[in-house]
Amino acid sequence: MNDIKLAITGMTCEHCVRAVTKALERVPGVERAEVTLRPGGAVVHGNAASEALIAAVREEGYEAAPA
Ligand SMILES: [Cu+2]
Fold it and tell me: What residues does the ion ligand 1 have nearby, CB within 5 Å?
């Protein structure tokens, strides 16, 4: 169990935040994702590879990087 922090760019509203939250929470091993709009980022709780989290965010149309 660990927390992974991501910096996320491209989110402009709460709709984006919800889309990113759902995408992250669909990644196997993720228990919960807390996504913030300003600053754009996420704290992901669970056991997931950061590469899988970043890929999920990109699939949703946003950019992510380890924070
Ligand atoms: Cu939006």
Answer: 12-13, 15-16
